């Protein structure tokens, strides 16, 4: 069953084993390094919460928070992000598939409007670019 909305899906093959990719998304110090985030707190388990302060180009700081609805180690991470003025968190799904020493990542999200989708997709591409660069040096 799909919810009405505007969806996007990004797929990339990362040059790192799946356990390294998983740790990049679920270990606070790792995530902060590649996602331009500070004060990162992560409790990556169903019902657990996360928070961070995103530092965007130009120096603006944006506090973010949310929770985890589904956590399957090295396979699937469903994270919700709290959005001001919205009752339900915005969910982002990350699916990982091991391919030897490489990992396929599929990141998907459904938004309420085309504009939100376009902004979220741009932000997710920025995140995946940071992740790719981080994994190349990690």
TrEMBL record:
Organism: Streptosporangium subroseum
Domain of life: Bacteria
SUPFAM superfamilies, per database record: Bet v1-like (SSF55961)
Gene3D superfamilies (alphabetical): 3.30.530.20
Family: Belongs to the AHA1 family.
Protein name from the UniProt record: Uncharacterized conserved protein YndB, AHSA1/START domain
Pfam family, one: AHSA1
Limits of the Activator of Hsp90 ATPase homologue 1/2-like C-terminal domain: 15-135
Database matches in InterPro entries: ASHA1/2-like_C, START-like_dom_sf
């Amino acid at each position: 069953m799909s919810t009405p909305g505007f969806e996007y899906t990004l797929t990339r093959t990362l040059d790192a084993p799946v356990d390294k990719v998983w740790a990049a998304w679920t270990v606070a110090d790792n995530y902060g390094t590649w996602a331009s985030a500070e004060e990162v707190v992560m409790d990556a388990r169903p019902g657990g919460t996360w928070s961070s302060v995103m530092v965007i180009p130009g120096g603006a700081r944006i506090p973010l928070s949310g929770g985890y609805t589904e956590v399957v180690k090295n396979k699937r991470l469903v994270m919700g992000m709290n959005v001001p003025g919205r009752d339900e968190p915005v969910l982002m799904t990350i699916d990982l598939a091991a391919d030897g020493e490489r990992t396929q990542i599929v990141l998907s999200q459904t938004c309420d409007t085309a504009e939100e989708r376009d902004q979220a997709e741009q932000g997710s591409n920025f995140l995946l670019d940071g992740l790719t660069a981080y994994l190349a040096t990690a």
